[in-house]
Amino acid sequence: MPNLPLLPVGEQDFEKIRKRGCVYVDKTEFIFQLISSGGSFFFISRPRRFGKSLLISTIKEIFLGKKNLFEGLFIYDKIEWQSYPVVHLDFSSLDFRGKGLEKAISDKLDDIAQNYQVSLIETTLGSKFAELIQKLHNQANQAVVILIDEYDKPVTDVLETYQNEQAHIHREVLRALYGIIKGNSQYIRFFLLTGITRFTKISLFSDLNNLTDLTFYSDFHNLLGYTQKELEFYFEKHIQNAAKYQNKSTDQLLAEIKEWYNGYSWNARERVYNPFSILRFLTQKEFYNFWFESGTPKFLVQKLKEKLYFNLSQTSISLDSINAFDIDNLNTETLLFQTGYLTISEKDEFGNFLLNYPNKEVEQSMLQYLITAFSENPHSDVNAKKLARAIHNHEFELFEQTLNQLFADIPAEIFLAKKEAYYHSIVFLALKLAGYFVKAEVRTSKGRLDAVLSYQNRIYIFEFKLDESAEKAIEQIHQKKYYQHLDNYAKQIFLVGVNFSSQSKEVEKIIVKEWK
Q: Radius of gyration over alpha carbons of the chain, in Å?
């Protein structure tokens, strides 16, 4: 086994990473710019396992004055090293389920006070937090640094179990905590808040109007995540080792790594890798859905299923919508973006964003999860592979048989009160899972066609019907001239009419006609 630098797999403590000699992707130039910018109050949101906790830990060690840990890093000789009192709250480590949120935070504030040998008198949460900040300031004669990690976890965790009432209670507790920050700004040297969601200021941060949001700030886009340059520089030996293991060239492996794990963007220009997936891949040297499998989105998938929302790519969303997370009015697209299942692929002249899956890992995993949830059948991927063979060979008898097998495996009660869109969703997800380039609900000048699939020298135009006829589906394609916008394609075009029967819960008939 080659002598490779240690990888910090699962480690978010900067001091431990440095003392163990693990690979550290140097982000201290960004941190230097941040702490030297003249601003003091910052917020950044990123999906889970994107390096937020390591960022907080790194900044903490800088403000504790531990210069020796930063030897060889950008910031080492750029600042005047001194020690500040640091208040570090990590909501992912607080026992708010067992103790209750207010008690868990209060106990943590007491622990911090005890560590600095100060005593707190106040009992209400906001007052206790303010007292801690002021006493730490007075004791050290130094402004206080406040670092809050996963600030939104007490709200998002209970939302996932549909405890909206508890989410409101937790939100009010957090509002009381954060509400004292502005009034104590004269005691604060630096304040950073990280999390997954971006709550509307009205709902949580009404008093924090001096908070600079770095989420879409291009100068700090690469503060979290790995760039292509960082990947190739810091992990060169590991990539070479993985390439040798897979019997591939380094360039070939890098192209596959990019397809699997790159693609996250908050400005539609720069792209970064998910650090968690990269570190796992370089450890195991096999492609796998590491990030997705580390936390399945049950709450989110349930919402998608309820709304029959299955075509997630090419989703358009306004800047106002993408900015806001409101527990009283949860927007599905906002949730998908902020949790990392979709990312910004384009930005139009009006400031609206086009969202897409960031990479192969997320798309494959989400499609599998969706088809399993929609069909309540954990073996739907087997049928997807058969559909792939049917399209590849242009065998629509096999296509029909496979669809019927797919629907036969779905429990009968699932079909109750289902609409055409349900059948459409299952076929679309299966085709996407089979690896085909397929678009759903494509708009034309004459209407909206159900699906278009492009493969090799063929294009298939699908129209789905429920309890009508395949002939009527073909007739609608001709009537609406759905193929007009495809005239310039030098490919064979096939019209596919599919009729489902709600009685037999299967494909009643498929008609395939070549148009061009």
A: 27
For range 21-27, the mean pLDDT:
98
Cα within 13 Å of Cα(30), Cβ side: 17
Q: Are strands 458-466 and 492-501 parallel, antiparallel or unpaired?
A: parallel
DSSP structure class, residue 224: S
Task: Tell me which long-range contacts 423-428 makes (C-beta under 8 A, separation of at least 24).
Answer: 423/464, 423/466, 423/500, 424/450, 424/451, 424/464, 425/308, 425/310, 425/374, 426/371, 426/374, 426/375, 427/403, 427/451, 427/462, 427/464, 427/498, 428/310, 428/311
Contacts of 400 (CB under 8 A, 6+ apart): 507, 510
For tokens 């009034």, name the residue: 183
Q: Taking the CB of residue 136, how many other CB atoms lie within 10 A of it?
A: 23
Q: Which residue has the tokens 């963007």?
A: 265
Chain-centroid distance, C-alpha 20:
30
pLDDT at 201 over 60: no
Strand duo 315-317 + 188-195: pairing: unpaired
The two structure tokens encoding residue 128 = 């206790």
- Region 308-323: mean pLDDT is 80
Token digits for 387? Answer: 């559909």
| Helix residue spans in 179-297 (DSSP H) | 228-234, 236-245, 250-261, 275-284, 290-293
- To 10 degrees, what angle do helices 420-433 and 380-392 make? 70
Q: Give the integer Cα–Cα distance in Å for 3 and 494.
A: 56
Are 95 and 231 a contacting pair, CB within 8 Å? no
Local structure of 333: helix, strand or coil: helix
Query: Which pair of tokens denotes residue 275?
Result: 């650090």
The alpha carbon dihedral of 420, 422, 427, 432 has a sign of positive
Read off the pLDDT of residues 230-281 as tens digits, 9 standing for 90 and up: 999 999 999 999 999 999 999 999 999 999 999 999 999 999 999 999 999 9
Q: What are phi and psi of 493, to 5 degrees?
A: -115, 130
Q: How far apart are CA 304 and CA 299, in angstroms?
A: 9
Helices 236-245 and 275-284: crossing angle in degrees, nearest 10, is: 50
Q: In what order do the strands lie in the sheet with 315-317?
A: 315-317, 353-356, 343-347
Q: Whose structure tokens read 């997800």? A: 429
Q: Residue 488: CB partners within 8 Å, gap ≥ 6?
A: none
Report pLDDT digits (tens) over 411-447. 766 655 567 788 888 888 888 888 888 888 777 666 7
Give kind and range of the element (H or E) at residue 462.
strand 458-466
In sequence order, which residues have a C-beta less than 8 Å from that of residue 88 and are 6 or more positions away? 56, 60, 112, 147, 148, 149
d(CA 57, CA 111): 18
| CA torsion through residues 62, 32, 278, 237, sign | negative
